[in-house]
Amino acid sequence: MKANSPSVALFIPCYVDQFYPQVGIATLELLEKLGCTVTYPSGQTCCGQPLANAGYARDTVGTATHFIETFSDYDYVVCPSGSCTLHVKEHFPAIAGLAKEQEALEHKIFELVEFITDVLKIEQLEGKFPHRVSFHSSCHGQRGLHLSSGSELNQPPFNKARKLLENLEGLDWVELTRTDECCGFGGTFAVTEEALSIQMGKDRLADHLSHKTEIITGGDMSCIMHLQGITTRSKQEVKFLHLAEILNQALS
Amino acid sequence: MTHPENAAEFLKDAQKSKWHDETLWFVRDKRDKVSKGIPEWEQLRELASGIKDNVLANLASYLEEFERNATKNGIIVHWAADSEEHNRLVLEILQKQNCTAVVKSKSILTEECHLNPYLEKQGIEVVDTDLGERIVQFLNQPPSHIVLPAIHLKKSEISELFHEKLHTEKGNEDPVYLTQAARVHLREKFFGAKVAITGVNFGIAETGEFVVCTNEGNADMGVHLADVHIACMGIEKILPRRKDLAVFLRLLARSATGQPITNYNSHFRSPSPAKEIHIILVDNGRTAQLARDKFRSSLKCIRCGACMNTCPIYRRSGGFSYNSTVPGPIGSILSPGLDLKKHSSLPFASTLCGSCTDVCPVKINIHEQLYEWRQEVTKTQDDFAKGLSMKLANGIFKSPLAYKISGSLMRNALKSLPNSLIYHPLNVWGKNRNLPDPPKESFQQWYQKNRL
Amino acid sequence: MNSREKILSAIRSLTLEPKTLPDIPNFSNPGNLVERFTQSISDSKGEVMTKSEFEAWFSAAGFSKVISLSSRFSELATLSLPEDPHDLESLEVAILDGQFGVAENGAIWLEDTELGLRALPFATEHLVIVLDRKMLEDTMHQGYEKIAAAHSGFGLFLAGPSKTADIEQSLVIGAQGAKSLRVVLV
Fold first, then answer.
1. Distance from CA of A173 to the nearest CA of B (A)
2. pLDDT at B246 over 60
3. What is the chain A residue with the closest CA to B358?
């Protein structure tokens, strides 16, 4: 994108803003390296997903209204989270008086990887990343936004993140045994069904580690936060990086 | 006990819960392999979904057509508004036959109606003839999976059980040996039964026939030797045309067990000479579910169990943890319609990963209905404290300033509080996971400092 | 109001969006029908045999209780079809004709005319079905087209010997129904 190019607004999930600012920074720098003019609207807060998933979608009217208004002036909204992006697209309550803006938002909001492949139409990135990398396919991104094909469906296989990663020089793509099983984070599930959440996380990690991965990556820090929480507690040796961090590093 | 408590209990036996997970994943994997061999698989799912949508939109006229044709062919049709009436009707037929012992093949509907204890209270012996169901019957347990009733049991447990009940050799765990023992035992029951009860996989409106699918042949062994066949059918199990069976029989076994078709697919149109076939059409909450816009399509279910096999939660918590006749993802959107209070934890026993929706042969949007049931649960089962904290959270996220302040408060608190407070048992996150290291500044703060 | 009226009026009281009943395409897959059918039966733990293979197996086994309703092998019968299905208790072999088979899954269609007694293919210890190799269809869609006008009081798509995996998912052949299925393709 050059001058007079569409305006891109950065939507940084609340927990990324608070706990993983480096992912926000990587996302911003990456999009700029790819030629985008990026703004970070400063009034943004949260998409409201935790409340909605806990059964209080009706109490997210204020949050959703604020979100729609914050992002109304931009051509694109890009977010380094499939889960938050999907929530804005499909689970916002209908906001009276903002119907036009709301519909426009649903069409102009993109998760980071799909923005790069589908809007910027970048098939391949030139860069170095000489590491063994395994990919955690976050559920909402995969089954909701179709960022990659599902193992359940009879469809030709595709993976938008893989397209961007596997051509990086030196990157060793690690195949998993169960390619897209849920990590067990699930928002409030992580706390309300703690035993299951931990077991699911441990099983995912065992899969990745059994294939001798060096770095586990994915498009959602929520999944990574959960998996990393388990490995740091059990002192397992594996690194975690968000896709934005890998791509940004590779392009520098 | 709630689902989380049951799940935690189930996971305590690490070896068994791991085996349960791997066994059911294996069934899911078989389903994947066989479905990838059918190029038109996704089209078939779309067709099945469309056919069932049409059925639900025209249910009354299809039921009348089915009744008309079945009656014409000599099948006696009964209607039951609820489970009590269903059980009473079965009992009446049995009493008319002076029958005190019946054989029954797999019918989740009869489980739903608690038919067995009802009949047993009336002094009638009920023998469940599906091997898995006979096993759990011996143990006084309900089935833990709608297709694989004894999936939660190891062969050592079954060997112990058969030694006690069927006098098999102690310690002989060979599945072939144990199955043969059950065959001999059940064969005696089949040859002695005057009345046999079955479920119904599909009822065909166009012809008035109904179809029963098994791998063991136990439904047929029961009905063809008995004088009276009682078939129990949920009113949603209708299909419009005979040829619709092609779509559904191509999908059913492949989704359920990874087989191209079950061994036996029996089409009942008329009774044999001098015999009777009864069919009981049961509502028991189905018309109520039909009225629920957001949950109506859960009635498309053909009880294949694929959603259970794919669910990472079901595999790691087992069918009993749901406390629901039909467990797993589909059970979690059907049962709240029957008793919202009892089943209020079920829609939350999920990460909403969506895998169930993608394996469902009739494309029920299960994970979306789980999300919708959560909204219903909080309206009437509102945990006051949780509701209040949600309102507070909305208050915080609505206001950028409030968000900024509370965010930095939280980050600073994490930095300065001792681990013993942060990892207090009340902090459930911290039981088995570390919290992320709090960074020195938020992204917003970095942006303000470096980019504005 | 009886339950029938209650149920039907409850359904009719709802205003539901109309949904069209879809047409079903005539799905068909390439490949040799006999090969695919044979593979399907084999996958289902049954066995497809030629006439001579069957005769060799049958004579070597030395069965004493055999019912044959098949025009092809009527001379092999040692018993005639009883009136009462309970008399099938110790039957060793039943030989029946199948109307046609479906290649995609090995399902064979039989009706009252082929079965004689509905209990026969289940109660027998071993089941043999004789099938004309020209009577094979590709998928269930073609199968149901073939029986669209059939009015038999009972019909059965049978695709293998009785089996179960209810004990720790170990496959055991011969649960409650016939312990084996042999299909003689003629």
1. 23
2. yes
3. A152
Q: What are residue B266's DSSP bridge partners?
A: B212, C156
For chain C, the domain total comes to 1
* Cβ–Cβ < 8 Å for B332, B370: yes
Asked if pLDDT for residue B426 goes beyond 60, the answer is no
Q: Are residues B269 and B311 in the same domain?
A: no
What CATH number does residue B23 fall under?
1.10.1060
CATH of the domain at C176: 3.40.50.10420
Any domain includes B388:
no
Do B304 and B427 fall into the same domain?
A: no
Q: Are residues B30 and B175 in the same domain?
A: no
- Domain of B120 in residue numbering reads as 59-284
Residue in A20, A22, A152 nearest the CB of B355:
A152
In a domain, B99, yes or no: yes
Say if B51 falls within a structural domain.
no
User: Is the same domain home to B244 and B116?
Assistant: yes
Q: Which residues of A touch B310 (CB under 8 A)?
A: 152
* Contact between B132 and C122 using a beta-carbon 8 Å cutoff: no
Strand, helix or coil at B217? coil
How many CB pairs below 8 A link A and B? Answer: 207
Structural domain includes residue C21:
no
Q: Which domain holds residue C65?
A: 31-185
pLDDT for position A2: 47
Q: Which residues contact A221 (CB under 8 A, 6 or more apart)?
A: A13, A15, A16, A19, A20, A23, A80, A81, A242
**Contact flag C3-B224 (C-beta cutoff 8 Å):** no
Q: Is B431 inside a domain boundary? A: yes
Clarify whether residues B82 and B193 are in a common domain: yes
Residue C149 in domain? yes
Distance from CA of B433 to the nearest CA of A (A): 4
Residue C78 lies in a domain: yes
Average pLDDT, chain C: 96
CB contact under 8 A, C21 and B268: no
pLDDT of residue B389: 62
| Closest Cβ–Cβ partner in B23, B269, B291 for C14 | B291
Separation in Å, CA B235 to CA B67, B135, B193, B242, C22: 11, 29, 27, 17, 21
Q: What is the largest CA-CA distance in chain B?
A: 91
- Judging contacts by C-beta atoms under 8 Å, the chain B residues touching residue C2 are 79
pLDDT, position A1: 47
Burial B224-254 (b: 16+ CB within 10 A, else e): bbbbbbbbbbbbbbbbbbbbbbbbbbbbbbb
**In the predicted model, what is the mean pLDDT of residues B340-351?**
94
Chain C neighbors (3+ CB pairs < 8 Å): B
SS3 content of chain B, % helix, strand, coil (to 5): 60, 10, 30
Q: How far apart are CA B162 and CA B172, in angstroms?
A: 10
Chain B interface includes A19 (CB < 8 A): yes
Residues 328-387 (B) with a CB less than 8 A from some CB of C: none
Look at residue C26 and tell me if it is in a domain: no
Residue C65, sorted as left (phi over 0), alpha (psi -120 to 50) or beta, turns out to be: beta
The pLDDT mean for chain B works out to: 93
The values of phi and psi at residue B392, to 5°, are -65, -45
Chain A residue numbers with beta carbons less than 8 Å from the beta carbon of B432 are: 194, 198, 230, 233
Yes or no, beta carbons of B260 and C104 under 8 Å apart? yes
Choosing among C126, C144, C156, C176, which should be mutated to test the B contact, i.e. which has the most B CBs within 10 A? C176
Last residue of a domain, one of B381, B407, B439: B381
B307 Cβ neighbours under 8 A, 6+ residues apart: B314, B328, B329, B330, B356, B359, B360, B366
| Segment-wise mean pLDDT, segments of 10 residues, chain A, 252 residues | 74 93 97 96 89 89 93 96 97 95 97 97 95 97 97 97 95 97 93 94 97 97 96 92 98 86
Structurally, how many domains does chain B consist of?
A: 3
Asked whether residue B74 falls in the same domain as residue B167, the answer is yes
